[in-house]
Amino acid sequence: MTVLTVKQARAATAIGQSATLQGWVRTRRDSKGGFSFIELNDGSCLANIQVIADAALPNYELEIKHLTAGCSVTARGEVKESGGRGQATELHAAEVVVHGWADPESYPLQKKRHSLEKLREWAHLRPRTNTIGAVMRVRNQVCRSIHDFFQDAGFLYVQTPIITASDCEGAGEMFRVTTIDPANPPRTPQGQIDYAQDFFDRPSYLTVSGQLEGEIYATALGKIYTFGPTFRAENSNTSRHLAEFWMVEPEAAFYELSDNMDLAESFLKRIVGDVLDHCQEDLAFFHERIDDSVLPALTAVAEQPFERLSYTEAIKLLESSGEKFEFPIAWGADLQAEHERWLTEKKIQAPVVLHDYPRTIKPFYMRVNDDDKTVRAMDVLVPRVGEIIGGSQ
Amino acid sequence: MTVLTVKQARAATAIGQSATLQGWVRTRRDSKGGFSFIELNDGSCLANIQVIADAALPNYELEIKHLTAGCSVTARGEVKESGGRGQATELHAAEVVVHGWADPESYPLQKKRHSLEKLREWAHLRPRTNTIGAVMRVRNQVCRSIHDFFQDAGFLYVQTPIITASDCEGAGEMFRVTTIDPANPPRTPQGQIDYAQDFFDRPSYLTVSGQLEGEIYATALGKIYTFGPTFRAENSNTSRHLAEFWMVEPEAAFYELSDNMDLAESFLKRIVGDVLDHCQEDLAFFHERIDDSVLPALTAVAEQPFERLSYTEAIKLLESSGEKFEFPIAWGADLQAEHERWLTEKKIQAPVVLHDYPRTIKPFYMRVNDDDKTVRAMDVLVPRVGEIIGGSQ
Prior knowledge:
The structure is a homodimer of 393-residue chains.
Chain A: E1 2-3, H1 6-10, E2 18-31, E3 35-41, E4 49-54, E5 72-81, E6 89-100, H2 116-120, H3 130-152, E7 156-157, E8 163-164, E9 176-178, E10 204-206, H4 211-221, E11 223-231, E12 244-252, H5 257-278, H6 280-290, H7 294-303, E13 307-310, H8 311-319, H9 337-347, E14 352-358, E15 374-382, E16 386-392
Parallel strand pairs in A: 1-2, 4-6, 7-11, 13-14
Antiparallel strand pairs in A: 2-3, 2-5, 3-4, 5-6, 8-10, 9-10, 11-12, 14-15, 15-16
């Protein structure tokens, strides 16, 4: 008998098939007519499939009538057209095998809504919630599109070192990687820590960026990208800081700033477009239950041309905005989040590529313009998020 | 003018196009006829394209005639059919712009062959060699196929934590991740190291496996895979040990051992098949210049059915082999590399899936068979490599 995912079994094309479904019970409801409705979810999509279990099944009284949220089952039967609302199909079970029970007294994921903070306490179970399941499916699509985009564009995927002995332009505080026991470290005759006896014979850290290694590959292979974990040991507890996160870093030889801007725009349009195309059910859930500003923001990225604006023009717009900003506007100063949000959300109301920043606020290696004051750098700002990509020639 | 990669410009379909090519000079040779042949490589493929630069070009005497290996150039002109051997096309340059020079006295990558050991000293330049360039293109294809395989099979890509406070079945020695200064660590009143003052408030390490987190996602989302860096602090300097490497870990709910074996076989066949299809030029180079056992080994993985053999059967074959092994054969002992190689390379001469190992040599969480002595575990062995995949129900 064919094993189908819930997603496959919910399609009208599955009607008439004999199928095996495997997943976790969300709810069970018993009908007076002598059967039970089991809502089954397997993570392949947000929606459940309704499994109809007849009282004539041999384990009906002993097992099926005791199924509760979180129980793990295999159901075999025929997929039939459903008369129910919001579902094209249902499974008429000829067999229901219970693999694992979930004690309703202690299983925490009951039908009520739990806060994300509360779900942190059940990290081993939260992927079974609608919200985290939807996040993981969207995240998977984003990752897939990242690879598809670069592969289609002829970029080679390279893995740059995670453990490194070099810093990268002081991008942030670093974590030390060591096998030295701090309770009893080896010391030099002068009393210093003897890193020659550490695993890599010298002080070693977690990478803050693969940029340096990426440049080495790009100046040999033309166009490369990295997509891997990156680490910052900054003790900042904000929604914009993470100790560990996955980052994409493309490097392309011979690219000029306009090439970078084209790449950044088509990259974001591809990823967001794919998510809009392939994750409609999950996005509709976010829109309805989490935040109704998500869909318009994504649609703006996918459909609107990105406005290209020099830093100097942006400063003029901000100066003449009449807005009261917490941080002062002055040519030469870094833009703050409030300035970026005003530009992209209020003034332009579309994604913005800011370019040609003052050289004094950017790293030394960026190409200096003929004015000797600005460099070929860019930041991509999108409504609702702020800076999402930075780059330079 | 269209920017083409060398790979694109070498295709017969490019003939007649006006094109811009950008890359690095491999060699320059001057003809008595009043022009120079420049072999240009850009990493898009192993082969170079021949650029023909006429002495009439304005920078011919001053620049073009001084081009040497490693110089970075843009060449614009027309792609024409070539009369040369091994090339369908060549570029007749209307313009050659030199972006960067490479001093032939100090640029180390000269036409002679360098050992891989020697190339380690020039890590910033070795991706420009034929060997490392070919390795990186094949590695890119492998990574692409890993993602394509799992995405096509409905597995979700998840990123499991790199920094972790938990060990995973003692898979190996771990690296500590810390912001504590070992020269002056915080101590508790009892004189112990006070890890409550470390970044994560407790001792933290680099992951040796994402298996535990992967299982959490699989028992919610059905089928997941990880593909990320993994770390082992074992001080073993062998060709089978790395301190840092990228690993693939699929986890699937409801899978039985035969499903694992099917997955492992189709996974390897897909990756190797894709490499054989898409990296022919690079594989031919390895075959000719590095090791002529690579192509037959890959072809065997792609084309031969994997032989499935229980551990108990394997022990019998080994006992009756008449071979002199360094390590003794006995039911209950782990197989050594010499035993695995004999099985896959000499006896079976194909990839082998060994299954149902003694429970005493495998971790506690594997499903025990009815014999109470063996567990539903498997290892995939391939000729020339040995164990390449391990798994269990």
